[in-house]
Amino acid sequence: MILLHKLKLQSSFACYPLCVILFIVSAALTNPQNNTNKQVKSDYYRDKSSKNLSDSLEVLLSQIRSSFGGKELNLTLGVVKDGHVFLKKNYGYANPETKTRFSDRTQIYIASTSKSLTGTLAAILDRKGIIRLDGTIADYLPGFTFDDQKIHPDKITIRSLITHTHGIKNNDAVVWTAFIGIKSTEQLMAMLKTRSTALPDDRFNYSNLGPVIYSMIVEKQLGKPWQEVMDDYLFQPLGMKKTTAYVSKAAPKYISYVIDESEGKLSTVFDKADNSMSAAGGHLTTVADLLKYLQFFISEGNSVPGVLSKEEIAMATSAIVPQKNRYQSYERFGYGLGWEQSVFNGEQLVSRLGGYSGISSHLSFMKDQKIGVVVLSNKKGMEALAHLVANYIYNSILNKDNKRSIAKENLLSLQKNFESDTLETKEITEAINKKIPMDKKLSGRYDGAEKSGTMEINNAGKVSWGNLKGQLHLLTDSTGLINFRTMLRSFSVKKENNVIVGVYSNDRYFKLLR
């Protein structure tokens, strides 16, 4: 997902000494039998080796928890190995306000990991001849044009939409579908037509836009919502019965919320609704379902015959287009149908990661070693934890000699996550402590037009922007911060002749409606 507000890190900031954490990790790596904690009932171990890995994880995570002031670590994970579920574990809370702990029933939002699911659907519909990967936008949306004449629908293929090589930019469509909540397919098509611009070239350029456009094509061709098509052609065949692109169809009791402490107290938030669950980042699922999904790919389709062939799976997970960047410990070199290809610690890794301000989703597998890992977490400031745990699992199973040094490297990322979130919390706290009273003249409805929709501010500074609900904290009589809890946005007032006429939130302008 896109980050709407990014705060600068201060390298000198240190809430908890990193050396303490590194010492703890070394102890965990060398003394896996020191754990005395009782296992959660839903933990599962296949054999003695998986039990040993579980014990080692218990030590590692309990000590990291202690080093961060005793704060609960919240995550759920699973491992498949050699054709079987090898390990499943749950830690902490899916929703601490209702005291609902992570369990095998937990349905968690997986953000951009959804791109893999959409890519797999594209492979399936191509196999069936319904929507060909080599087909173009013009083939499936005949007559649809863009106002920017540099965008050519007859040259943009379905494959390019899924692999981020379509050469189109439209941040507004992304914001509507991911945050505000799109109103209708007609609204989305109008926005694509008028607000899209051509990129300089069609090289790999990661964004939500390609899968979103693809979902419109799916609806057009099959005559039903893309969410139902996903269920018919992917989730039901693979037995992923707890995976859905509809928030309204999930079990409210078991949805994992984002855990936030930005205003000085623990609170939970889940601001997703059906209309902001896009094909680029819009699914709720369980670890058990994602393990089935990984097993399908690791087995080259043999776990559920007839959905995709071995060759089709190889294509979907191959480096269809090149990329070159490093993320966490992964040297990325390619991108397929929603899957990224990278090298991790000398091994080829196929992965799809996702994040949404507190939500962190890690889904990956090593084909040659027949190992797959799912780690999902939900606490702001601890987003790197999911990847640290996944890396530790791979290095432990493969008996890598350098797993200690990689754990230290990953802890640096975790520390930076924590520091960044702490700095953001500090900024909000400073705004709260200023205690600048809300100017009632700021209350009202503001129109951001086609670009941004409507924002409302009440007399108490409560802000509503589509699906996002937040609190305005003033820094001066004309500037402040809007804390939506899953994101922080700037705020400033526009006046003419000393009269309020509108407000800015980051780069978006909203006109006050009289």
Average pLDDT metric: 91
Helix/sheet category: alpha+beta
The domain count comes to 3
Summarize the main sheet.
Answer: 9 strands, antiparallel
Strand order of the largest sheet: 1-3-2-17-16-15-14-13-12
In short:
By secondary structure, the chain is of the alpha+beta class. Helices cover 33% and strands 24% of the residues. It folds into 3 domains: 18-113 and 239-424, Beta-lactamase (3-Layer(aba) Sandwich), CATH 3.40.710; 118-230, 3-Layer(aba) Sandwich (Beta-lactamase); 436-512.
Question: How would you describe this structure in keywords?
Answer:
8-stranded antiparallel barrel; 514 residues; signal; disordered N terminus; CubicO group peptidase, beta-lactamase class C family; Beta-lactamase; 9-stranded antiparallel β-sheet; 14 helices; single chain; alpha+beta
Describe the structure.
The chain is built from 14 helices and 25 strands. By secondary structure, it is of the alpha+beta class. Strand 24 (499-505) and strand 25 (508-512) form a beta hairpin. Helix 1 (18-30) runs antiparallel to helix 2 (48-67), helix 1 (18-30) runs antiparallel to helix 13 (403-434) and helix 6 (171-180) runs antiparallel to helix 7 (185-195). It is globular and about 70 Å long. 47% of the residues are buried. Residues 1-18 and 32-40 have low confidence and may be disordered.
List the helices and strands and how they pair.
Elements: H1 18-30, E1 44-45, H2 48-67, E2 75-81, E3 84-91, E4 93-95, E5 100-101, E6 108-109, H3 114-127, H4 137-140, H5 158-162, E7 168-169, H6 171-180, H7 185-195, E8 197-198, H8 209-222, H9 226-235, E9 258-260, E10 267-269, E11 284-285, H10 287-298, H11 310-316, E12 321-327, E13 330-335, E14 340-344, E15 347-356, E16 359-366, E17 371-377, H12 385-397, H13 403-434, E18 444-447, H14 449-452, E19 454-457, E20 462-465, E21 468-474, E22 479-483, E23 488-496, E24 499-505, E25 508-512
Antiparallel strand pairs: 1-3, 2-3, 2-17, 4-5, 6-11, 7-8, 9-10, 12-13, 13-14, 14-15, 15-16, 16-17, 18-19, 18-25, 19-20, 20-21, 21-22, 22-23, 23-24, 24-25
Signal peptide: 1-27
Protein name: CubicO group peptidase, beta-lactamase class C family
Domain Beta-lactamase-related: 75-383
